[in-house]
Amino acid sequence: MKKILFPTDFSEVSKNAFIYALKLAESINAEIVTMHVYQLPQANYVNVSEYLHEIYDVTELSNFENYKDEVPVLRKIAEANNLTHIKISHVLILGNLVPEIKKITENENFDFVVMGTKGATGLKETFFGTIATKVMNDVKALVLAIPENCKYHSIEKILFITQYKPEDTGSFLRVLSLSNIFHAQIDCLRVVSPHHEVKDDSREDWKVLVENNEVTFHSIKGEDVEGIILNFIDLHKINLIAMHVYHRNFFEKLFEISLSKKLAFHINVPILAIHE
């Protein structure tokens, strides 16, 4: 059975993302492990040593009680979506979030990490924030990030952002596998500068791999890469964006530009980060 790690901070953003974790688990026959990571307080004041263990005990107990209270909430979400048959277990960990996610995914062989992402509160902030970006960059499992305003829709159209390079082939095959699971259509898109000479184009090789799958290959010339992709998402009603992790800087640019346009495009589509 496959395994999905679901980091949660008990927020509404996390609860919204949990629906995607449940639906994915059903589709790929996986179990879910929810995970909450907490830190102990930093005590810097004088004469704290005699109270230190008591402070830590109270903090750990509080985190345990909070987590215990959240478990029934997650179960109710499963019930509301008729997914109570999904196996769900829970872990509470003391540590730093990103290193702990990286460690548990490697040691326990998780296939996916599904997590909610909070929106920016100011124009200077990127959409993902530090934690989700670091998880996408550092964690080798497939990372599915669910924006806070993203309401669940079945995955029918997947956008794979690519340069059609040979090193993208592994990621393309993973997207192709997911499209078979979801019975989804794939749109592969490359945005290239009008002044850029295209080399190492793997489209012809990929066409041999697709067989009976619904895959359309696009190449659009233009300088405004992020704007072109945002238009494509809106025009083609994309339900999931996927890309190789070496595009990580693009994540930030994509959401910065959506904010600079004063949210003319509402980014409410899950994004899948793929490592190879």
From TrEMBL:
<dbReference type="Pfam" id="PF00582">
    <property type="entry name" value="Usp"/>
</dbReference>
<protein>
    <recommendedName>
        <fullName>UspA domain-containing protein</fullName>
    </recommendedName>
</protein>
<dbReference type="InterPro" id="IPR014729">
    <property type="entry name" value="Rossmann-like_a/b/a_fold"/>
</dbReference>
<feature type="domain" description="UspA">
    <location>
        <begin position="1"/>
        <end position="146"/>
    </location>
</feature>
<dbReference type="InterPro" id="IPR006015">
    <property type="entry name" value="Universal_stress_UspA"/>
</dbReference>
<dbReference type="InterPro" id="IPR006016">
    <property type="entry name" value="UspA"/>
</dbReference>
<comment type="similarity">
    <text>Belongs to the universal stress protein A family.</text>
</comment>
